[in-house]
## 1
Amino acid sequence: MSGSREVAVVGGGLTKFGVRGVTWAELAQEAGEVLFRSVPNLRAADVDSLFVGAAEPERFAFQSHVAPLVAEQMGLAPHRIVQRNELACASGQSAIRSAYAAIRAGLSDVAVAVGVEKMNLPDMAEANSAMACVLDRPWDAAHGLTAPPFFAMVAQRHMLEHGTTEEQLAAVSEKNHRFANANPVAQFYEKRFDREKLLRLPMVAPPLRLGDCSSMTDGAGAVVLAAEERVREFTDVPAWIRGSGQYADFHNLANMASLTDWTGLTRASREAFRSAGIGPGDVDLAELHDCFSISEVIEYEAIGFCGPGEGGQFAADGRSGLGGDVVVNPRGGLLGCGHPLGATGIAQAVEVSDQFAHRVDPARQVPDPEWAMVHNLSGSANVHSLMVYERGG
Amino acid sequence: MSGAVVEVVPRKRPRSRKAKPSTAEPAQAPAASGDRPARLPYLLDLYPAESPAQTRLAPFFDGLREGRFLTTRCRKDGRVLWPPRIVCPTCHTSDLEWVDLPQTGRIYAFSAILAGAPSGLEGELPRVVGLVELDGSPLRIFGRIQGVEWAACRIGMRVRIEPFELPDGRAYYAFRVVS
Ligand SMILES: [Zn+2]
């Protein structure tokens, strides 16, 4: 047993994201279909551990104890570690982090991390209540707080403090929607949004319009992680996990030090860079948590891709697009792909794996990416989770 | 949050309309279609449980019925805590006391919910919400803002706490813009 062996994501697949006429359990079955298709050498017997990222199956599907349900739906019989990971919007990455830790510690050799979320319900008010209770329910959500008005206040303050404009926010959304037009699993694969159209969409929570907000989405996905001794059984281009960082502090909004300076993200990304031995300038591809356009703007700043207050201009100048300083969200992001909470982190890892192996549409392929960073925030940006990947070959 | 001591504000006279006891039975769903029951199913009800049988923070809600806006302060380090708590997160002691918070403040940030309401709030859109800096306090508290259209709302507007009664008799609070 090795205490520090290397771990890689060796492949994975995703279901179609969108408003789907399928149940929660059917999404898990689809995840099994795409996983075994995407990693042809994988046999169910290889998988010793299973980690299921699912934010709110109790509220979205009235179903608890989903780890064995997923094992049954996917035809897996994990015999070392089996568990569900819940970290709201970061549940998928949480599953990957647990699989990574288990393999690194020698408790697992080949693990599957799955994400499933079914958010579109017959009564969407119930789905909105599910989103509300991610926040401090009796003290913040009881006033009507959900994600859009929270991130709207963040945008309002960023505009006031740094002069960020609606047009700059639309630049983020336009970029991610354009990438999503080259990603067939994306919720908005066939929907075109240019900046002018985005700026005419209705307000959801001013100053945020519909195009500034990620959607309520049904979707699932799965990735395989393997110990270094097993990696070559599954792929020639492993995505080695070289670093990680995570930080949590407040929960109630009164205890958030600043709406616009996300110090928790700065701390977590510094730890991720330190553990990987790289810096922001080394990152070729970043999957950042653009639950709202303003989120991506602040993430550029807090991670260090640009200076404080410069995020809006960074996007408007194309520095986060193909040919820019760092390609952010070539998958299409949460804005373009939709945001099935537990599946989002899985989808980001699939994107890193596929980008490293040059398996994506040329319209969104990053030229020879070597280093990738993945970020999720959850809740009111009170938790930040990051991982750093290096291309093997 | 700093440890600054919050100014104790004078008590207001109790409101004449006495709120029903918080232990009231949940109302039956009305026969008429389209009407909302007085209380949603427990696990869709965003408002807090407030009876002494359910929470040690019942004095906060009793305070609202008396026109007071209370929270807890740690007797050991003097920190004013929001939301009210039963154990100080710094000293890990339950030696806390109830103190009055300022009932006035200024809007620090706001938005409006124009779509996507949770269950029970669908008929109450648009709803202005915001973070309010309480006067003379380091606290910035989130809440609904009454008495202003969202297009007319501005950062810096003065507001005050306004307790109100839920249909089932529980007490809660919002902010109201004052001129
Ligand atoms: Zn204390």
## 2
Amino acid sequence: MVVQSTAEAITYPAVGAELDIEGVSHAFDIDGATLPVLDNVNLSIAPGEFVALLGPSGCGKSTLLRLVAGLEKPRAGSLREDEARITGPHPSRVVVFQDPTLFPWRTVWDNVALGLEAQGILKAQRHRVDAVIELVGLSSFRNAYPHQLSGGMAQRVALARALVNDPKILVLDEPLGKLDSLTRIAMQSELVALWQRKGFTTLLVTHDVEEALVLANRVIVLSDRPARIKADIAVGRPYPRHRGDPYLAELRKQILGLLGLEATW
Amino acid sequence: MSTYSVSDATAAAAPRAAITFADLSGSYGVGLAASLAWLAFGLSCLYWPDVGDWSRTGSLGIGAIVIAAFILFGTFSADYLGNAGQALRKRAPWLVAFGAFVTLWEVATAKFAWLPLPFFPPPQAILEVYTDDLPKLLDSVFASIKLQLGGYVIGATVGFITGVSIGWSQKIGYWVHPVLRFIGPLPATAWLPIAFFTFPSSWSASTFLIALATGFPVTVLTWSGVASVSSAYYDVARTLGARPSFLVLKVAIPAALPHVFVGLFMGLGSSFAVLVVAEMIGVKAGLGWYLQWAQGWAAYANMYAALIVMSLLCSGAITLLFRTRDRLLVWQKGVVKW
Ligand SMILES: Nc1ncnc2c1ncn2[C@@H]1O[C@H](COP(=O)(O)OP(=O)(O)OP(=O)(O)O)[C@@H](O)[C@H]1O
Ligand SMILES: [Mg+2]
């Protein structure tokens, strides 16, 4: 079943890349048995679009993101960025992983600078590191080591480490999962503002239906493992959005129904 | 005073005008006891006649009394001496114990010979070695340091590079791993007889053996450190555009560094053993050789003196290694303090 709502025409800045996922299936071998994780996933994301992925835990969302990042090759199907097949990782597609995975031997500043350093352009671009640390509100912790940070601060550092690279596609795996609800709301507005300003294509995995509706142009609902696309819902509301919007409440009810949680909304 | 700590604050808050009885039984009391212990040592040197013929008894006794005076002075002015005062206060119980120990040692050897001479020389005999045999002892110290340092640096460097290579590349691991398993567990001293006649000089043979003893633990631990780096770090670095050289130098090596230091520590221990044996058997210099030589002359005081120096050097080397580690691994929490 594919639910389609009426979408308003939205124009996107030109920085983002187009992402095409065509007939992608993937599986893991565990103890000789094959565990199918993705089943014929087809998804086309326009340049600059903000797409949210919703699905039950363990259905294969992070796996799909690893394929988009180029860290793994799909068993079947293909992924393309601006018509070019994805064969490996590239800094134009940056991932913020579910776990912040900061390098414990580097300070906050050095962690954020990682991408520029790896690409050999840090010397000329140091101001970008400072600016993005300012953006996530961690200027006073620039010289702290990861073990001195709270879980939420670590996730903000991970976000900054991705943003500093000016990606064409930003891939986010529950990046706000560990934040308290106030910081979370603030970071959501920050993310939308940033996305509108920079125009990168965004693919966001989240467990939070409301978060998906406040942030995304489109919400993709995945089935249980192996993940299939269950619904592709356009969210036709301008930004900034209001949590109390009855249109969003109606969509939320619909999505919770798709996830088998009718009773809880 | 630029540094300000909690103990300064409490010291400043306490009234200083009079030293009360409570002070005497508290922090001042321990300092006083330490002073008395050293005074007892000094007096025990001077009061009874020696049972043997030692030339430094008088100076040792006076020295001990001077130390006692310093401890006394330090105890009552610790509040005004800053860090040195605090350090003295912290070590006062040890000064009591050590003062009592040397007093007992003095009495049991030089004065009443409860312990058999010459196997248990008195403190003044050891002092005599440090004053009269200093040049030879210093020569030995330098020879030992030179040999140990050369072998250790070579072994640690080769071990580190080998460990990183086999941790990173399966192809290199395929060839090096069996060799490592065959040669590594062999105690380096087992090579001694062969090394001493295949190498051009006993010095190069010993350097090789020390390097071997250091290299094995460094290799194995570096290897296991590199192999156990979480793949999540590589994933992050690769998505940010890292090339293989970056992954090795900026991800694998820093992540493995805590393991590497364990290897360096173990290598230091086993290389000390090789150093001493090599000096005793082949090299005609160094503290191991000094010990051997002293034994030949039944110069027991010299042996104890050399042993004390050796212990200070080994401990100093380990302290240096741990300091370096603490400096490099500030990002780790809860590291053991040496
Ligand atoms: N490297 C791997 N080897 C074997 N199985 C794996 C591997 N990675 C993931 N899986 C399996 O694939 C399935 C999907 O995992 P994935 O991490 O994509 O789930 P998810 O949708 O992100 O879940 P969550 O919302 O809890 O993060 C899980 O059942 C997991 O056990
Ligand atoms: Mg996941």
